[in-house]
Write a structure and sequence with these properties.
Blueprint lengths: L9 H4 L5 E4 L3 H12 L4 E4 L3 H20 L6 H5 L2 E4 L2 H5 L4 E4 L5 H14 L5 E4 L7 H4 L8 E6 L8 E6 L5 H13 L3 E4 L9 H17 L5 H16 L4 H6 L6 H17 L9 H14 L5 H18 L7
Parallel strand pairs: 1-2, 1-4, 2-3, 4-5, 5-6, 7-8
Antiparallel strand pairs: 6-7
Helix pairs in contact: 2-3
The structure holds nicotinamide-adenine-dinucleotide.
């Protein structure tokens, strides 16, 4: 699969046709930046017309910030690639690709796919930003299902490069190849998820870590702040540039098999000590909430998010030009 259309510029792959961004919330607006930055014509559509306006204002502000970090050259020229639309049919007319980013609700996503089928888009490929709902849950049995797959980004999509491609059993190989070529052309770091599984790879990994983090707080082993510190000043240092397998390969003299032989029993015993399958209790959630609000008040959340995005921009500027393997 890799290599096919490899290196082709997105506008060549799309033969000059536009892309549609359907759902213009946080993620849709982020995708619009990714597409416009690559020189593609972008139609933005949201069922709530006000959301489209808010997205355009957000994008303009973000492009300005990105430019101050040297991550975009000409914010005004990039913004000129964006066109608000107020009907779904208008957004997808003549488009080669659509990125669906509506709310994470299966019936909404299925309703939208049915609408797209009725509109009669002959060769439109549709990538869904779904965080964990597999495509088959909202496309099974539809005529367009061969042209739909999950293309899951991380927020914000224009700063974090990974995307997970998750086809359903009905997605055609040609659709996967097209999405792979498009995403690589957009300088995304592409992960192929070979089987539909709830949460895909990224959120399953995140869920394993979060499950343990909440349990450690519940057991009184450490504070939220010290758990965050362990990640931020410990595991996260290596994990920001290498994954867990490469990490352990380098952490035993003889490599990964040596590591597994030395520490396999420890990890097995840790896993066996976490057998309960309870949801996070209301009491535990209140405890974590109280601890977080004592270091960051509710009204500071937005400014701290903006701080996070500036840190990500600084990191992206540092890693600019890195080629995606
Ligand atoms: N927020 C994240 O960190 C994140 C990361 C990766 C993927 N995702 C996924 O991206 C998708 C969007 O999430 P978000 O955080 O941007 O949500 P959001 O609430 O910010 O935006 C969703 C938008 O979809 C619009 N919408 C709802 N129904 C619609 C319809 N039928 N047609 C067109 N627009 C419609 C809403 O008006 C809203 O503006 C979800 O599937 C989510 O799981 C989110």
């Amino acid at each position: 699969m890799r290599g096919l259309e490899g290196g082709m510029k997105p506008e060549e792959l799309l033969k000059g046709r536009p892309v549609a961004v359907i759902g213009a919330g946080l993620v849709g607006a982020g995708w619009a930046i990714v597409f416009a930055q690559a020189g593609l014509q972008v139609r933005i559509y949201d069922a709530d017309a006000d959301a489209t306006g808010r997205a355009l204002a957000f994008i303009t502000a973000q492009l300005k910030e990105l430019s101050s970090f040297g991550l975009v050259d000409d914010p005004i020229a990039i913004a000129a690639h964006l066109k608000p639309t107020y009907q779904l049919a208008e957004a997808v007319e003549g488009a080669a690709y659509a990125q669906e980013s509506v709310l994470e609700r299966v019936e909404l996503k299925r309703g939208l796919m049915q609408e797209l089928e009725e509109i009669g888009t002959s060769d439109l490929v549709i990538g869904s930003s779904s965080s964990g709902i597999p495509a088959s849950a909202f496309t099974r049995g539809l005529k367009i299902s061969s042209r739909v797959l999950v293309v899951h980004p991380v927020n914000p999509p224009y700063l974090v490069p990974v995307v997970e491609l998750v086809p359903s059993p009905e997605t055609s190989p040609a659709t996967v190849e097209f999405a792979d070529a498009l995403m690589r052309g957009l300088k995304r770091s592409v992960v192929h998820v070979r089987k539909e599984v709830q949460g895909f790879v990224l959120n399953r990994l995140q869920s394993a870590l979060l499950r343990e983090a909440w349990a450690l707080v519940e057991d009184g082993v450490a504070s939220c702040e010290d758990i965050d510190r362990t990640m931020r000043d410990g595991l996260g240092w290596r994990w920001s540039f290498m994954g867990p397998f490469e990490t352990i390969d380098l952490n035993a003299p003889g490599g990964v098999a040596d590591y597994a032989n030395r520490l396999g029993t420890l990890y097995l015993e840790i896993a066996q000590s976490r057998t309960h399958q309870e949801p996070w209790s209301a009491e535990l959630i209140s405890k974590v909430e109280a601890e977080r609000r004592s270091v960051l008040s509710q009204d500071e959340l937005a400014s701290r998010r903006a701080w996070r995005d500036r840190r990500l921009m600084a990191l992206a500027a540092e890693r600019k030009g890195e080629t995606m393997p």
